[in-house]
Amino acid sequence: MRKTILLVDDERWVRTALKWTINMLNLPLHVVHECENGLEALDWIKNHNVDLIISDIRMPIMDGLSFVKELSYLNKKQDVVVISVHDEFQFVQQALRTGVTDYLLKPVEETELKACLEKWLDRQAKDIEIKKVDESLPSSTIDRVLQYLEKTPLDQITLKDAAESVHMNPSYLSQLFKQQLNKKFVDYLTELRIEESKRLLRNTTLRMSEIAERVGYADLAYFSNNFKRITGCSPSEFRKSAI
């Protein structure tokens, strides 16, 4: 998929030359719009998305530095490459401090433009890979935790042991669990315990204390209270209704 570029320069012939060169480089890039100054570019950006902006520093109405500064106030994040002449390097340094991605010197040479754009494309590709890894890590971690919960006897499960099974800090796992499944680890575990106790109440003749112990409750009263809070009836009432 081609990345989009906005060109911002008050000289039409410069924009035309840049667009022609970018097209000739045969990179996955496409110039989608051109603007004559920073203010015009800002107005356009408010209603359009673009991946990269190439902007001159010296322009009438709104120069490149003011444009970059105003751009930072918008809730959109675009990469910017500024173009300057040799004796304006102090402005380039100022632009770089405000978050500009890179710079080019006039007259813009084809080799320099190609190197700049290829470097930007490489960084984009790496950012996408990192983002994919970052997005997959939490879900894959939770999947492993759920597998651990599924195969481990309920009376042996603790948050600490679950965290150790995926080599993670318990408090971080707890936060991740809430973020991914929209419920606390302890609440999820309680639901598992109650579901298993319901199965045992329906299908076995085990005593209440034995069922409580089997699903991880050392205290029968605590088990009964939790069961009633979640199901709306006591374990004995549930067993009678299930007969």
Structure description:
- The protein is α/β, with parallel strands linked by helices and about 240 residues long.
- The chain is built from eleven helices and five strands, in the order βαβαβαβαβααααααα.
- The protein has helices spanning about 10-25, 40-45, 65-75, 90-95, 110-150, 160-165, 170-180, 185-205, 210-215, 220-230, 235-240, and strands at about 5-10, 30-35, 50-55, 80-85, 100-105.
- Strands 2-1-3-4-5 form a five-stranded parallel β-sheet, sandwiched between helices.
- α4 links the parallel β4 (about 80-85) and β5.
- It is rod-shaped.
- The N and C termini lie far apart (about 60 Å).
Instruction: Give the proportion of residues in helices.
Output: 55-70%
Largest sheet: 5 strands, parallel
Strand content: 5-15%
- Provide mean pLDDT, rounded: 90
Largest beta sheet: strand ordering: 2-1-3-4-5
How widely separated are the two ends? 62 Å
* Structural class category: alpha/beta
Unreliable stretches covering 5 or more consecutive residues: none
Query: What's the number of helices?
Result: 11
Shape: rod-shaped
Q: Which value, in Å, is the CA radius of gyration?
A: 31 Å
**Pattern of helices and strands:** EHEHEHEHEHHHHHHH
Number of strands: 5
